[in-house]
Structure formats: C-alpha cells, structure tokens
Amino acid sequence: MGWRLLLGGAGAMAAVPTLGLAVMVGTGTAAPGAALAVLAATLAAAAALAAIWAEDLDRLTRTLRLATLEGSPDPTPLLALAAASPTLPPIARLARGVERLARTLADRVSQSSRLLRANEAIIERLPDLLLILGADGAVRRANAAARTELGGDLGAVVRHPGLRAAIELAFAQNTPQSVELTLPVPVRRDVQATVLVLDPPLADGGHAIAVLSDRTRERGVERMRADFVANASHELRTPLASLIGFIDTLRGPAADDPPAQRRFLGIMAEQAERMNRLIDDLLSLSRIELTEHRPPAEQVNLGELAERIAAAFEPQVRARSARLTLRLDPALPDIVADPDQLDQVLQNLIDNALKYGREQGHVRVEVTVARPGGRWPPRPGIVLSVADDGPGIPRAHVPRLTERFYRVDKGRSRGGGGTGLGLAIVKHIVNRHRGQLAIDSEEGRGTTFLVWLPQRAERLAGERPGAMSDKNQSDKNQSANTETP
Predict the structure, then answer these.
(1) Which end of the chain, N or C, is more open, meaning fewer C-beta atoms within 10 Å of its C-beta?
(2) 83 falls in which pLDDT band (50, 70, 90)?
(3) What's the whole-model pTM score?
(4) How far is CA 376 from CA 82, 332, 370, 478, in A?
C-alpha cells in the first residue's frame, strides 16, 4: 500500500468537512475547541476509510498484475478471491466486474487453445503431404506424412522448378496455384501440388501452405494401360497367329490326320503356355510398379530365402547337368523387405543363369554383408550375387537389359520360354527396396548380377541407384558354403 495514495485519499475525504469547520470557527458559530475535536475525529475517520480503500485497490492491482504475467495459471481463482476480499461496496463491485471479464477471456483463450490443438492434430494426421512455407518460400515445418515420405529431401522438393514457380506465382497474385510434378527423390513419384497463400499469416511465420497429393498410382495405371496395349499386342501377335494357323489346319487338311493333330496340338499348347507366362509377368510387373513408391516393412532373412529357392531349382539343375553353389555370409542380418518380391528376384536371376549359362555349367549364388567403401553406398546393407559361366553378354546390350521385352538373343529367349520381362521385374523390385542393381559381364566368361539391398528401405538425400563396377568385393574368408549337385 502506498503512503501517497493513503494520504491523498484521506485528504480528499477530509477536505470538505475541514473547510466547513474553518468557516464555522471564523464566523463564531462554533467554538474552536469543539471544532478541533470534530476535525480530529473527521481526519481519523477519513484516514481509516482511505486505508481500507487503498488496501482494496492495492490487493486488486496486485492480483491483476499477477494474472497478466506470461505463463501464469488460470487467473480466475485469484480474481475470485480478490472480488470476495474488498470491504468497500464500490471496490467489491469493480472487483466482481473484473472477475467476470477475466472468466470470459479465460474461456475464450481455452477455447482458442483447444481449436488450435485440434487444427494441429488434423494437419499432422492428413494423409497428403503438407508443407508450411515462410515469406521466402522456405519450409517452416511439415506434417507427419511429409516428414515420413520425404525425410531429408524436403528442401530438394521445394526447389523443384515447377513447385518453385507455383509458389512464386501464388505470392505474386495472392491466388491458389496448382501444378502437376514428377519428383525424383526419394523415389520417383507423380504429385499434384496446390499452393495456398495464408492471409493473415500464421503465428509461427507461415505465409503459405503447399499440399502435395500423391498421384503415382493413378499415373501408373494410365501408363500401365498404354504400355500393356503397345507391348502385349506385339508379344501376343506371334503366338496368336500361330494358334489361328494351326486351328485352320486342323479344320482343313489335318482334319483326318491324327498324327498331325497330336503334333499341332502340342505346339498349340506351348504357344498357349507362352501367352499365359507373358500375361502373368505383365500383371506381376504392373503390381510392382503401382507399389514401387511405398517401401516394404517386413523383416526378412535373405540367406534362409536363398536356401529355399536354391533347393527348389534342383530339378532344373539336374536337367541342365549343371552345378548350383550357394555361399552365405554367416553374419547376415535381417533386412526390411518384401519376402514375396525377393523370392521373385532370386527365381528370375537363378532361372536366367541356368537358362542362358552353358550346358553343364556352374551357377554361383552368394549372399554377403556389404563391405564399407567400393561400389555400394556407405549405409549398412547386404549384397546378392548370381553368376554364371556362360557366353556372357556384349557390352552394348548391358545398359538395356532391364528394359521391358528387351532380348539379347530373341530366338533363344523365346525358345527357352522367356517373356523378356524378368529383369524388368527385378529392376522395379530393387527400386522399391531402395537398392541398387549392377550387371558385370564379359563375353566368353559369363555374367554376374549383383543386387545391393539396404537393411532399412530408405534412401539418403542425393543417392542414386544403378552404379556399375567391375569386381565383386565380398570377403570369401567369412562365408559358409553349401552346394546343390
């Protein structure tokens, strides 16, 4: 309580009575002694009332000051106590009015906080990728979907020329902008980006939002339809023409020739089986492409999977009078992968090695821990190697081996039952696992297919798959050997 406030209040309340007593003493209507006694009583009463008034105001002022401090708890209990404390009725009414105002403000603040938390939760749980942008177009923050899908590549995405142009145009015109993009990182995907300018801006400095909606599946379906029509019509034309020709022959010249009918029906069955294999591979490839942008999530032991697949190839190995050697690193860790797709990778690579390797040849399958340095990324991973000792592949053909329907020797491939899609399937599976595929081949000495797979299916910023090199750097001294005769 301030003494100046107390003295000022007491003086204000005693001023009029003191002036009246002075007039009465001056005119002789009141005795000086009695006037002094009345004046003393008046001053004492004014001082007591001023003390009560000052104490009430001081208490209310302290409570208001405490309630407005940053980080203070809910002020309404303090103000309720202050409202119940004043002795003077006017101050009590003022305190109750302040209390009601504080309760109203507290309710509004609480409601705003709940709405803000709800909005944050909605943004965080949106399935689409959402970026909050500052006035300079830089990323201020991102929701959970964007952090999961893009990781450390957020900056690279915002620097994409198409998205950057949409952001600049949205700021310049203060209107929403939409653009379709193809993002190369962390895995190729098609997105539709919508940029909205925020007016007023967010409290954290966000001036715009960019919503990235994944359209990879839809675009993949469109491309799949176009590719299927182009490639399938070309590949199916030959067996269909053959079937139509044999059917006409069976209806005509061979109608009464049982030996010819049996021979033709056998050829027709082979052509029908070829079409069936082609359709199965096309459907498999399309399924892989539609999920290629989503990393796998299961734990897989590639060594155990390789042992099972190698055992399943025993009939083909015997039919070719070949040898299949399986070599596994004893320290193989589990990896995050899709077991069915890795099964398909092993089957396609081993089948190719047996089919295009030499008769009575040797197929070597190795699964080892990737060593630091060399051709592979520095992250933990494993390397699958499938090698044959066949005629090898001319260098000019190696870069195109993973293209759909590409064949080095078309006659030999079709004669062996190949569809021309096996290595394309392998490439897309490896891409989905964020791995790398390398092909080493030397004419007259054989071909080696190497697949590097990370322990976790995520790619670092700037990393690119598909590097080629000349040697396999796996350590043979730390391997266990098993052989299929």
Answers:
(1) C
(2) low
(3) 0.48
(4) 72, 17, 7, 19
